[in-house]
Amino acid sequence: MKKSITPNQIKENNRSLIYQYIYKNRKVSQQDISYALRLSRPTVTANLNELETCGLIRKNGQIDSEYVGRKAAAYSIIADFRISIGVEILKNEIKMIAINLYGEKIDRKVCEISYENKDAYYKNVVDQILDFLEMTGAEKAQVLGIGFAMQALISTDEKTVIYGKILSCTGLSIDVFSRYLPYPCYFIHDANGAALSELWLSPHLENAFYLSLGVHLGAATIVNGTISIGKHGHNSTIEHIQMEAHGKLCYCGKYGCMETLCSLSALLSQGEEIDNFFRQLRDGNPVYQQRWDKYLTDLATAINLLHLVHDTDFILGGYLAPYICQEDIQTLHQLIHEMTPFEEAQDFIYLSKMPKHNIAIGAALPYVQRFLAEL
After folding, report:
1. Residue 369 located in a structural domain
2. Whether residue 296 is found in the same domain as residue 335
3. 109 with 174, same domain?
4. Which member of 28, 43, 155, 246 has the greatest number of CB atoms within 10 A?
5. Residue 63: its pLDDT value, please?
6. Can you give the three-state secondary structure of the chain, one letter per residue?
C-alpha cells in the first residue's frame, strides 16, 4: 500500500522549497515566492516567519515594482548562518579559508609551517585553525565542518591518505586533526577540491577533464556533474603517465612522468617567482619565451594524449591558470591540431572560472552542499 504524505512532511517540503527559492534568486518578495512555487500567500507568510525566526533568512529592503502602491518587502538568506572551512596542506605552508553558504570567501589566512609527520605539527595546525575561526568571529554552532585538501590520494571514506609521496604521509588518518577539533573533518585530494570549486561556479557542467597546473600537476575527471574517483581511488592520476623514458626523476620514483614536464615546478627554476617569470615573458624576453614555448609544447602533448583517451572539454586551473591568456590557449589548440590525427575543433580547452583559492574553497564546499541538500 502506498503511504500517504503527512501534513508535517508537506510543511517541511514547502519550507525547503521556499528557502531554496530565496537562496537561488538572492532577493525576492513574498509575491514572487507565491507565484513561482504556486503556494498560497498564508502558506508562504507562515514559512517566511518561521525561517526568519530560525535565523535562516532576513528582510532585505524592498522590491521595486511597476505597480502603484507600497513596495513589497524583500527577503534574502543569511549567507553566514552556517560557514565551512577549507584547509590546504602544503610542504611549507598551510592555507585556510572560510566560506559562507554561497561559497563566497569570508576570510583567509596563510601560515608558514613546514610539514612534519609529528603530533606537534598537527596540533600546531589545529591551533592556527582555531585562531582563524576566532578571527572570523564565528560561533561554534555556525561551523559546518573542516575539509583538509592534501597533495595525496584519499580513501573512499575520506578518512585516510592512501598515497602521499609528496609529503611522505601515506597512511595518515584524519584523526590527527579531528581529535583536537570539535567539528566534522575529512580529507580531499587537492585536484578534486579544485574541480569541485569549478563545478560550484558552473552547475550545468556535465563532463570535463580538469587539469590543476600547480607546483605539482593534478587532475580530476568530471562525469555527469560529479568527480569520478575510480575503482581503486587513483582515477585521473595523469601526473604519473610516462612521457619521456629517460626524462627527469619524478617524486614517484619513475622517470619522465607528466609531472616532470607539465607542473609549475617544470616551468620555473629553483626559487624563481611566477610573477617575475611572466613579467619577463610578457615584456618579450626571448629566453623566457623559449622556456614558455617548450612548456606549452609539453602541455599540448599531454592534453593531446589525454584527449585521445577522453574526448571531452579540458579546463586549465591551478596556480598557473591566472597567468595564461587566450593567445596561449590558441597556441595549445594549434599545437594539438598538428599532433592529432583528427580534425580537431578549437573549442575544447578553457580556463578555470575560479583560479584563486580553488583548492581550499573546494575542500570546504561539500559541507555547504550537504547543508543545503538536507535543509
Report:
1. no
2. yes
3. yes
4. 28
5. 78
6. CCCCCCHHHHHHHHHHHHHHHHHHHCCEEHHHHHHHHCCCHHHHHHHHHHHHHCCCEEEEEEECCCCCCCCEEEEEECCCCCEEEEEEECCCCEEEEEECCCCCEEEEEEECCCCCCCHHHHHHHHHHHHHHHHHHCCCHHHEEEEEEEECCEECCCCCEEEECCCCCCCCCECHHHHCCCCCCEEEEEHHHHHHHHHHHHCCCCCCEEEEEECCCEEEEEEECCEEECCCCCCCCCHHHCECCCCCCECCCCCECECHHHHCHHHHCCCCCCHHHHHHHHHCCCHHHHHHHHHHHHHHHHHHHHHHHHCCCEEEEECCCHHHCCHHHHHHHHHHHHHHCCCCCCCCCEEECCCCCCHHHHHHHHHHHHHHHHHC
The sign of the torsion formed by the CA atoms of 29, 30, 31, 34 equals positive
Task: Give the CATH number of the domain where residue 68 resides.
Answer: 1.10.10.10
Q: Which residues lie below 8 Å from residue 308, measured CB to CB, with a gap of 6+? A: 340
CB-facing half-sphere around the CA of 297: CA atoms within 13 A: 6
Q: Assess whether pLDDT exceeds 50 at residue 167.
A: yes
Let me know whether 217 and 341 are in one domain. yes
Q: What is d(CA 292, CA 274) in angstroms, rounded to the nearest whole number?
A: 12
If one counts the domains in the chain, the total is: 3
Decide the pairing of beta strands 313-317 and 208-213: parallel
Domain of 283, CATH number, reads: 3.30.420.40
Residues with Cβ < 8 Å from 14, sequence gap 6 or more?
A: 37, 39, 43, 47
Residue pair 44/30 in contact (Cβ under 8 Å)? The answer is yes
Q: Examine residue 367 and state whether it is found in any structural domain, yes or no.
A: no
Number of Cβ within 10 Å of residue 12's Cβ equals 12
With respect to residue 322, please indicate whether it lies within any of the assigned structural domains. Answer: yes
CB atoms within 10 A of CB 315: 25
Write the pLDDT tens digit of every residue in 185-218: 999 999 999 999 999 999 899 999 999 999 999 9
Q: pTM of the predicted model, to two decimals?
A: 0.92
Cα–Cα dist 339/304, whole Å: 7
